[in-house]
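Changelog note: in this version the structure field was regenerated for every chain. One regenerated record is shown below for reference.
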Amino acid sequence: MANIPYVDSNGSVSVEVELQHASDVFLVDSYNYKKMNSGNEFSYFGGHFKRNPVRISVKGAGRWYLIVRGGGQYKYRFY
């Protein structure tokens, strides 16, 4: 299984992603990450992006996972 980037937040977190190709980019909390891995519907912040950079910000404490689908390699940074 691939390593999924994540960050632990005390209240809010942002991520910036540089894509090679158009991709689905999501930030999901721990609860929705488990739902996603179980094949169930899940809630997320983000969507399908065709332009760089992708920036997503969320509010909420806990662990947040960065999911990137369909774009090959990418670079990211949490802040």
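Spot check on this record: Residues 6-78 form one domain. The chain has one domain: 6-78.
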